Each structure stands twice: as C-alpha cells, then as structure tokens.
C-alpha cells in the first residue's frame, strides 16, 4: 500500500506556495526519489475567486457558501485518500464518491478536483510510492488547517505544514504580476488575521516549518521525511464502562483515605485535649492541698 502524507501550505496570496510545490516535486525527481508522487490541490482552481473576499471583508451571514465550498474540498481530499488506500485507478476514483451521500461535494467541484488529479501522477500509483498531497491555500486560520490534521489522524497518515512568510508589501507587489490577482485590501486584511503554525499553542502543529527567501529546499524535504516516518496516531477509544469503574474505585478510595485521615486527626486532638484536662485537674488538686 502506498504511503500518504498531507502537506498543508499556508501564507499570504503571492507568497510563493504554488512555486514551492513545483520546486519540491522537481527536487524529489532530481534527487533520485522516483517513488515520490505529488498531488497539488490548488484552492485557486477550485474556489470561485469572489468567495475569499466575502470571508475577509463581509459579515458572517454571507460566509455560508464559502464554508460549504471549503468543506467540499476537504471531503474531496478525504475521498482521494480512501481511493489511494484501496489502490483504485482513475476509472474507479470517480465511482468511489456517492453524490447522494456526500452533500458537501457538488458535481461541479468534483469535476474540477478530478481534473487536478488527471494532471498529476497520482493515477499511476504503485504500492511502493509515497504520495504527498499538497494543500495549496492561504490557510490563515489554524482551524482551516486542523481539518486536514483530522483527516491525517483518521487515516493514520503523515501530516506537516509549511508557512511561507513574506512581507505584505512584497506580496502585493508580486500579486500584481499574477494572471489571477487578489484585491490588495484582501491581502492586507488577511495579513492581520494570519495565524502561523504555533507548536507551543497547538501540539498538533509539531511538524511545521517557516519558509522564507533564505530557506532551502533541503530543510523542507527533511520535514516531509519526518512527517512520513511519524504518521498521526488516532485518538484512543475510551472504554466508558471501565472509565466509570475507575471513577467509582477512585471515589471509594478517596472516601476511605479521608476517613482514616479524619480518624487520626480526631484521635490526635482528643489526646491533646486529654493531656490538657489532666494537667488542669492536677493543678486544681495541687491548689487545694496548699490551702
């Protein structure tokens, strides 16, 4: 069975996410890692361009479409992972999704997603391959990235994040040269909302790296290898009955230990009081003798 790793790219528009994805693919091929396959899930090609602006600049009542689209993309990736694990080929991947059951995924979105798959080598996977699913999006909220971490945990696959750090002015300048541009105010506002990966705050963001102009691909490649070698582990199932029994035992033990402590305290205080009373009586007797 092929090994799978989810790689989440995050950063401002025009920060170089798509370019980095292609560089990593070329780096792996030039390094002789022919068994590495890359699937680049470009949100720009899956989301209607106006939806990002709705989220950034509009009120929450207008965000339902945006959230539905994003939930649909996560479900598409979920379906892809299932297909890879089952060893399905291109003709079967489409059949593995039931549109009546998966309400998050529209026919139009799935058509766009399968087009991305056809452009990659993911449809020619061997059991010895390692498949890197690159999630190419701004992902400025940690909650957006956490959805993919949950997928990694669900299927016990690798997970890591690459944060492309860039100055806002540079991002706006580079965005102006792109064929599909993002509004400047969207980039500026997004920069104020950016939540870079932070392991100290979120333990699930352990395998993350900040990539700048000074960074090299070797460090990123090492991160990918680490993520592959340490797949996310599922949450352990909790035995409710055993948990309740443990609580009863702990409770009974606490009551028992408390009773012992209280008995000792009472016994100690009684001994102290007895000593005081005895000394007082001897004092009274002594006083009568002197009279």
Number of helices: 11
How far is the N terminus from the C terminus? Answer: 104 Å
Q: What structural class is derived from the secondary structure elements? A: alpha/beta
Give the C-alpha Rg: 31 Å
Throw out a few tags for this protein.
291 residues; alpha/beta; 5 strands; 56% helix; elongated
Explained architecture:
This protein has helices at residues 17-30, 43-46, 50-57, 64-86, 90-93, 107-119, 142-155, 168-175, 184-193, 217-229, 240-290, and strands spanning 3-11, 36-42, 130-136, 158-164, 208-211. By secondary structure, the chain is an alpha/beta fold. 56% of the residues lie in helices and 12% in strands. The radius of gyration is 31 Å and the shape is elongated. It has a five-stranded parallel sheet, with helices on both faces. It contains eleven helices and five strands. Helix 4 runs parallel beside helix 7 and helix 8 (168-175) runs antiparallel to helix 9 (184-193).
How do the strands and helices of this protein lay out in sequence?
Layout: E1 3-11, H1 17-30, E2 36-42, H2 43-46, H3 50-57, H4 64-86, H5 90-93, H6 107-119, E3 130-136, H7 142-155, E4 158-164, H8 168-175, H9 184-193, E5 208-211, H10 217-229, H11 240-290
Parallel strand pairs: 1-3, 1-4, 2-3, 4-5
Helix pairs in contact: 4-7, 8-9
């Amino acid at each position: 069975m092929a090994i799978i790793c989810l790689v989440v790219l995050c950063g401002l528009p025009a920060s170089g996410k798509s370019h980095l994805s292609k560089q990593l693919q070329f780096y792996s091929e030039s390094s002789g890692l022919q068994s590495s396959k890359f699937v680049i899930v470009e949100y720009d090609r899956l989301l209607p361009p106006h939806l990002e602006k709705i989220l950034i600049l509009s009120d929450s009542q207008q965000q339902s479409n945006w959230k539905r689209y994003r939930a649909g993309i996560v479900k598409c990736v979920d379906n892809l992972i299932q297909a890879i694990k089952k060893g399905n080929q291109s003709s079967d991947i489409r059949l593995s999704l039931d549109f009546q059951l998966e309400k998050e995924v529209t026919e139009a979105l799935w058509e766009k997603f399968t087009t991305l798959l056809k452009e990659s080598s993911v449809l020619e996977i061997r059991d010895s391959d390692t498949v890197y699913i690159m999630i190419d999006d701004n992902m400025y909220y940690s909650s957006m990235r956490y959805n993919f971490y949950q997928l990694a945990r669900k299927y016990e696959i690798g997970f890591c994040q690459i944060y492309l750090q860039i100055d806002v002015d540079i991002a706006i300048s580079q965005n102006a040269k792109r064929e599909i541009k993002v509004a400047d105010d969207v980039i500026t506002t997004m920069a104020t909302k950016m939540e870079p990966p932070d392991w100290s705050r979120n333990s699930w963001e352990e395998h993350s790296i900040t990539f700048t102009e000074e960074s090299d691909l070797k460090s990123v490649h090492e991160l990918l290898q680490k993520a592959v070698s340490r797949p996310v582990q599922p949450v352990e199932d909790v035995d409710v009955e055993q948990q309740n029994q443990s609580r009863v035992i702990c409770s009974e033990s606490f009551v028992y230990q408390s009773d012992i402590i209280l008995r000792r305290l009472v016994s100690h205080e009684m001994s102290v009081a007895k000593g005081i009373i005895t000394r007082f009586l001897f004092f009274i007797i002594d006083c009568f003798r002197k009279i």
